[in-house]
Amino acid sequence: MLRMASSFPEEVLEHVFSFIYDDKDRNAISMVCKSWYEIERWCRRRIFVGNCYAVSPPMVIRRFPEVRSVELKGKPHFADFNLVPEGWGGYVYPWIAAMATAYPWLEEIRLKRMVVTDEALELIAKSFKNFKVLVLSSCEGFSTDGLAAIAANCRNLKELDLRESEVDDLSGHWLSHFPDSYTSLVSLNISCLGSEVSFSALERLVGRCPNLRTLRLNRAVPLDRLANILCRAPQLVELGTGTYSAELQPDVFSSLAGAFSGCKELRSLSGFWDAVPGYLPAIYPICPSLTSLNLSYATIRSTDLTKLVSQCQSLQRLWVLDYIEDIGLEALAAFCKDLRELRVFPSEPFAQEPNVSLTEQGLVSVSEGCPKLHSVLYFCRQMTNDALATIARNRPNMTRFRLCIIEPRAPDYITLQPLDDGFGAIVEHCKDLQRLSMAGLLTDRVFEHIGNHAKKLEMLSVAFAGDSDLGLHHVLSGCENLRKLEIRDCPFGDKALLVNAAKLETMRSLWMSSCSVSFGACKLLGQKIPRLNVEVMDERGPPGSRPESCPVEKLYIYRTVAGPRFDMPGFVWTMDEDSALRLS
Amino acid sequence: MGRGGSTSSSSSLESSNYPALTSRSSSLYQQNRDLSTDLRLGLSISTSQQGNPSIPSESDWPPIKPILKKELAAEENECNSATFFVKVYMEGIPIGRKLDLLAHDGYHDLIRTLNHMFNTSILWAEMDGDEHSEQNHVLTYEDKEGDWLIVGDVPWEMFLSSVRRLKITRADI
């Protein structure tokens, strides 16, 4: 076997490897033998770093010298919900600086939950001559000046996607920095920007880029300008409207309807800020071919929503506010047989009483009527074990199930029992479940079910649940494929963590906030397991100033080969051998 | 840490309370048993159960992204900002009024406002027979084709998309 491997010309192997894209497969190839490791590392073009602190830029560059595409993720997922204080970290600049010299031919950068500065953007614009794709998902720290640098310098840019990033919006003028000679735009997503871009610059840009297929506008683009933009890009596949509200005027309506009808390739719609029912019929002609509809910002009510979804027979993905109500979800179940993903968000998340008639029944209906449904995010105010069990039996193909009941610790509203058995049914029937987020009143029993059945589970989110360490122990010892675990406000302490310490090295990360993990236990973990960074976050001051038994506010543990990081703010401490001595 | 371990796994962690805990841990982590024993022995503290259950603050619960939270909060504070003002004339009075149709839920709401604005009783399409005699005025509207029609025959949304202006005429036609 060894002889064969070495007699195979390198070029041939490299050519064969070039057909392998999946990271796991590439990693497997690199483990066959030393020469395959060498050949593979020289021809790996794309890397994904799920936690930017798990490895350092020099380490990546040393191993993979010819990378063209980089994807990095920074802050923990709970940063989305304000649980990670400002200044925590996730800075991309060191990566850009290192790659600027090492990867002059870099084409793609995709970042999620990272801090990106204007300097970083300017460095990107200057350093990579063939730069094509920039995706900044839930990022922050940059302004429209940085965007201007990208627009002005990246001649081959195909994709600029700022989805859900927080941008310091100085002015809309940056868009005009795309030179008149620039025509390669394929995808533009500026939906998170507040300020108005020059509409004529936008129209000209859209008009001169024949390959444009994705355009997500921001709220500042008024409805009466949409038709003009659409007419210049009838080849669009994905569109995000601006504000979808205006005085009802027949000529505006008819030109809009005409423009939509002209977009025969349109498959995905989003935007719809302040949507007014009177203008919805403008999209009816293209509804039957829509596969994705994001109405998260559309405050239209169930009658209009029902009418709309009933016409979208090809719909695969729907994101909508709970204004859709059970009645709208029943229509969805009846008409949208190809539905794969449903997300229902709360229209009044802080109201105590329900403002709409959306209950567990809506989700049950969709689970019954849509055989391909496998991904759910559902906010509601009541749930029963029966409903969950029904959903589980209906949809054993479920892979992502996230439920949020607005009231924490809400029991089954009919039996007043915990929802342990309901979620137990979910993990028992849905054998391929990869992601689970639980809600309601939950005891240690639900964790026992999860530990026993959720063998493919990779990510688990827990809040206000459990009775004791036994709960956490069930999960850590039973879920073989667990990669990410995030916990808040649960009575989990030291024991389960310490007993399962070795498990933590097999996972990407563990987040625990408002639990009962003591400072002493954190120190112990940090000292004993060198390839884990155990970071304690406490805004009350140094943990060493309180008794060892005192629980820490927040704890973030992740595996790493890069050692402790040095860019932490004052309220984050790494527990390792040195720090334990320093802090005691 | 230096605390020698002669304790077996079954007695090391309140085993009487959590037999599953200890047997589970010993079977799955045989090779790390020294480590976990070490950790357990090194730990001289006990976990405390949470006292009063915590109530989350609005800044981090329910778990929706800030960008959506902001949009929804704004919606709750302000009504839909779209307006649709039309002119309203009463027969015999040369100076007209202006009225925002979108500030009304439907015909009943509109009639109520007009009755109040013009201090009269207005007849429209949906009224019962015996109310007719008491009405002084009739509500009509001009549609986009320039025709004058009585208000109330078509659904409210359809009315909104075709109305140009309103006129209140005397009932004795």
Radius of gyration of chain B: 37 Å
Fraction of helical residues of chain B: 25-40%
Approximately how much helix is present in the residues of chain A?
25-40%
- Write down the oligomeric state: heterodimer
**Low-pLDDT stretches of chain A:** none
**Treating each run of at least 4 consecutive H or I residues as one helix, how many helices of chain A?**
22
**Residue fraction in strands of chain B:** 15-25%
Morphology call of chain A: globular
Overall mean pLDDT score of chain A?
A: 95
Order of helices and strands of chain B: HHHHEEHEEEHE
- pLDDT averaged residue by residue of chain B: 69
Portion in strands of chain A: 15-25%
Query: Which class do the helix and strand fractions of chain B yield?
Result: alpha/beta
Strand count, sense and barrel status of the largest sheet of chain A are: 21 strands, mixed
What's the main sheet of chain B like? 6 strands, mixed
Largest interface, C-beta within 8 A: A-B, 65 and 52 residues
Number of strands of chain A: 23
Distance between the termini of chain B: 103 Å
Q: Helix tally of chain B?
A: 6
Number of strands of chain B: 6
Main location (chain A): nucleus
GO biological process, one term (chain A): pollen maturation
Domain F-box (chain A): 8-49
GO cellular component, one term (chain A): SCF ubiquitin ligase complex
Tell me about this structure:
- The complex is a heterodimer of chains A (584) and B (173).
- Chain A has 584 residues and is α/β, with parallel strands linked by helices.
- Among the domains of chain A are: 1-44, Up-down Bundle (Monooxygenase); 493-583, no CATH class.
- In chain A, the strands form 2 sheets. Chain A has a 21-stranded mixed β-sheet. A two-stranded parallel sheet of chain A has the order 5-7.
- In chain A, strand 16, helix 16 (420-429) and strand 17 form a beta-alpha-beta unit.
- In chain A, helix 2 crosses helix 4, helix 12 runs parallel beside helix 13 and helix 14 runs parallel beside helix 15.
- The model of chain B is unreliable at 1-52 (pLDDT under 50).
- Chain B starts with 8 loop residues before the first helix and ends with a strand.
- The longest helix of chain B is centred in the middle third of the chain and has 12 residues, at 66-77.
- With 173 residues, chain B is α/β, with parallel strands linked by helices.
- Chain B contains 6 helices and 6 strands.
- In chain B, strands 1, 2, 3, 4, 5 and 6 form a 6-stranded mixed β-sheet that branches.
- The chains are: A alpha/beta (584), B alpha/beta (173).
